[in-house]
UniProtKB/TrEMBL annotation:
Keyword Nucleotide-binding attributed: no
Enzyme class, first EC level, given as a word: transferase
GO molecular function, one term: pyridoxal phosphate binding
Oxidoreductase as UniProt keyword: no
EC number: 2.6.1.1
Cofactor field: pyridoxal 5'-phosphate
Gene Ontology biological-process annotations: amino acid metabolic process
Alphabetic keyword roster: Aminotransferase, Pyridoxal phosphate, Transferase
InterPro entries documented for this protein: Aminotransferase_I/II_large, AspAT/PAT-like, NHTrfase_class1_PyrdxlP-BS, PyrdxlP-dep_Trfase, PyrdxlP-dep_Trfase_major, PyrdxlP-dep_Trfase_small
Pfam families for this protein: Aminotran_1_2 (PF00155)
Recorded family membership: Belongs to the class-I pyridoxal-phosphate-dependent aminotransferase family.
Name of the molecule in the record: Aspartate aminotransferase
Length: 244
């Protein structure tokens, strides 16, 4: 990261746990990065903590401003109600950071959307201040789905899938099928080809990795029913097995 920082660098953006991979930075990972940022006081930090409550296997969430208090005045921490509280349609996000920055953000927001609707604000307040015991139950269900999806994808020919620490995505590699052909003769040269042919052959929609800037991978969300995920992963196995 230090090699990538120049005098023109304005922001470093963290997203942990992340979309699209579900990977998360540990406290020590973030400390190594904040140590670099302390040497570059012209760089601001934005930490996207949207998935902070969706972590597994005892992983402990950490965020830059808490790991390195000296960066507190240079850090904008953003979050929302969409993921942890399943309130996607309520459209509530929020941020904490330097007063001057928050005032500027509020000025832009007031002229673009005026404000989030009052009903959504009250609902978000109830979620944030209410009983969070449901999170453990919900995360246990997500973990079960994650483990099943990872196992089934790793059983598919040419697919390799790491087990993520958080969020509700997996980001498997399809490198093992690049260069193959479908039974109909369509060539799989990119992850976009893989996603398109999978959709055509099996009716399974995934997001190809090039859309996120990292190939050859694809993203699957396991925020779905277990039987749907089993069916989808079985179709992926069948599709991969058909390639030659």
């Amino acid at each position: 990261m230090e090699k990538a920082i120049t005098p023109r660098t304005k922001w470093i953006i963290f997203n942990s746990p992340s979309n699209p991979t579900g990977a998360a930075y540990s406290h020590d990972d973030i400390k190594a990065l904040t140590d670099v940022l302390l040497r570059h006081d012209h760089v601001m930090v934005m930490s996207d903590d949207m998935y902070e409550h969706i972590v597994y296997d005892g992983f402990r969430f950490a965020t830059p401003a808490a790991v390195e208090p000296e960066l507190y005045d240079r850090t904008l921490t953003v979050n929302g109600a969409s993921k942890a509280y399943a309130m996607t349609g309520w459209r509530i996000g929020y941020a904490g950071g330097p007063q001057s920055l928050i005032k500027a953000m509020a000025k832009v927001m007031s002229q673009s959307t005026s404000n989030p609707c009052s009903i959504s604000q009250w609902a978000a307040a109830a979620a944030l201040n209410g009983d969070h015991s449901f999170l453990a139950t919900r995360n246990a269900a997500f973990k079960q789905r994650r483990d099943m999806v990872v196992e089934m994808l790793n059983a598919a020919d040419g697919i390799s899938c790491s087990k993520p620490e958080g969020a509700f995505y997996v980001y498997p590699s399809c490198e093992g099928v690049i260069g193959k052909q479908t039974p109909g003769g369509a060539a799989i040269e990119t992850d976009e080809d893989f996603a398109r042919e999978l959709l055509e052959a099996e009716g399974v929609a995934v997001v190809f990795g090039a859309a996120f800037g990292l190939s050859p991978f694809f993203r699957i969300s396991y925020a779905a029913a277990m039987d749907q995920l089993q069916d989808a992963c079985g179709r992926i196995q069948r599709f991969c097995g058909s390639l030659r």
